[in-house]
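User: Predict the full complex structure for these chains.
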Amino acid sequence: MTVKQLPLPELVAACAESGVSRVGLWREPVQAYGVEAAAGLVRDAGLTVTTLCRGGFLTAIDPAARAAALSDNRRAVEEAATLGTDTLVLVCGGLPAGSRDLHGARERIADALAELGPYAEDHGVRLAIEPLHPMYAADRCVVSTLAQALDLAERLPAHQVGVTVDTYHVWWDDQAPAQIARAGATGRIHAFQLADWTTPLPEGVLNGRGQLGDGAIDMREWLGHVDAAGYTGPIEVELFNDGLWARDGREVLAETAARFVTHVG
Amino acid sequence: MTVKQLPLPELVAACAESGVSRVGLWREPVQAYGVEAAAGLVRDAGLTVTTLCRGGFLTAIDPAARAAALSDNRRAVEEAATLGTDTLVLVCGGLPAGSRDLHGARERIADALAELGPYAEDHGVRLAIEPLHPMYAADRCVVSTLAQALDLAERLPAHQVGVTVDTYHVWWDDQAPAQIARAGATGRIHAFQLADWTTPLPEGVLNGRGQLGDGAIDMREWLGHVDAAGYTGPIEVELFNDGLWARDGREVLAETAARFVTHVG
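Assistant: Here is the predicted structure of the two-chain assembly.
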């Protein structure tokens, strides 16, 4: 997503150029290219798929909408398996129109996970609940903290459901380090993502994630937390940023790799 | 602030028209009008001042900036006393330029409170730390939750330092109800403010607070939480909203009073 301006074949080539051997993919470009074809493209280039983003949106009350969401998530699990990644990131969904019931929405997510967890396991895939920053609680994700995400995940086995730790979403939370330790202790850190926090936030607050080093987040501090919790998996950089998307994708990828070395590596 | 388009004399008249007998004031218009004059204006109209907003911004590292902030907060305490309110709301400040140290910033706030708390007590004023929504953690307030605010407040006596509960800032937090109970148990709910959460958020995320009933927050639920915690003080409606500010202030005040009856009263 950091370089979504690059079509899949160019992304694969740019990764090779920049010495990037692992890549997180999003469903929309994969579906547009064809899931089998994308899997072959990536595999033939020697790239590993770290995670597939994203399933989720499991808060609907309407039965038809709920059934459609579950069906779409099963398809996402299948896509992840086809791509050869073991991790499907979940953005769990906001409040249904007119609802003010955060607790109820979180319980509907729990019910959905109870159905999807075993299905994911059957396909060799783990679900990774991503708590999103509280500014998205109404319209995008009612799971706002790692504590809430773990409360949901722990109702199911760790090889079915864990969490995604994304610095952009948790950096403000003084409870997050302890929750990372909690997640690590039960093997539930299924993904780790980096983005920096820059202000002012843009209208809609979606596409203003900062390039590593440009903002308020100490990347090494968070790397230290997941490290101490026993995490040895991939580290993804996921920047939704209109400014970066407007630039040449290969240049942005190379810059991001260099920033990673400076601020993380 | 909900009707900041109204100069103080018009605000006072509009309150009388709308049956509003208590008003929260902000420092800037009070200073512009003259603090003594404003106190007389409000008193002569039979209005009570609920709170003065705002002191705070206590995170500076630079000694001169820090001394200036402390001095300004002492002045804010004096203004509150002159206006006849016992409560000064604090917005504690963001990260200094270039800093990534949230913990250090919070400790500097604690140090400042240790100086300001006794000064406030001497003037019959209580400080009310307002946790701001985590989307303001970098540039406005490193105190993002009621738990963090209480951790700071509890270092000093309750009659010196407590917290402000504002629905806009805490509604997403499943720990907030328990923290409201914690605050109530030690007499530390010093202010209670309402605003609704509407999306999409505007650029800069400052002036998009929703009119009561327009958004995702169940006002009666939060009133129930502070009620159960023993809070019997005033309830303020504080809307930063470009749309409301562009309208006739008296009309907005009347509308807000009506919304209050529908969604809270």
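Strands of chain B lie at 22-26, 48-56, 87-91, 126-129, 161-166, 189-194, 196-197, 209-210, 236-237.
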